[in-house]
Amino acid sequence: MDLKLFLQAGRIEAGCDEAGRGPLVGPVTAAAVILPDDFHNEIINDSKQLSERKRNMLRPIIEQQARAWAVAHVWPEEIDRINILNASILAMHRALEQLKEQPEFILVDGNRFKPYRDIPYRTIVKGDATMMSIAAASILAKTHRDEYMRTIAEEFPQYGWEHNMGYPTKAHYAAIEKYGITPYHRKSFNLEHKQLSLFEE
Asked: Strand 121-124 vs strand 105-109: parallel, antiparallel, or unpaired?
């Protein structure tokens, strides 16, 4: 399916998407991307539909060719305090705030958002599979978050975060049961059925 470049031609539109709502560990990461009028790429799609190799190949293309782009994180302690939905929206707001160019309109993947400044917006369910700017944002959010997860995996190699990216796999739960939780875990998430002690270094 061909992705649409703009919802309305001639308008400066920023696409927003996030990665990392489901993991037990690490930040939720969002990206905002403004694409140029003549942007064209036949491979870009929703990041979940692409292989890791293709996502990593597309990331520098998007970063070099976008009119503006930004990536922002909301950290586990913030997620625990305000909940994952609010944290996802906050991450998108932070990404929008960092753009070097102010958009005239915001396109958001999904169906939940809160107004950002006074800029009009539209939420689009499966927007990452219909709008090019949202798909580009999904690729940046996913690749930047994965990169961060590989970094912290070196600190706590027992949990396999370089493979599971913090998502709740059987091996991840088994590691939590054996070693406890780390400062990177989201304590408001269901990390196990019984109370777990904080990871002792």
From this structure: parallel
Which H/E stretch holds residue 10? none
Residue pLDDT, tens place only, 62-115: 999 999 999 999 999 999 999 999 999 999 999 999 999 999 999 999 999 999
pLDDT given at position 45:
84
In terms of Cα–Cα distance, which of 55, 27, 52 is closest to 139?
Answer: 55
Reduce the secondary structure of 162-193 to three states and give it as a string: HHHCCCCCHHHHHHHHHHCECCCECCCCCCCC
DSSP structure class, residue 55: H
Q: Which amino acid is at 154?
A: E
pTM above 0.70, yes or no: yes
Give 107's strand partners.
15, 122
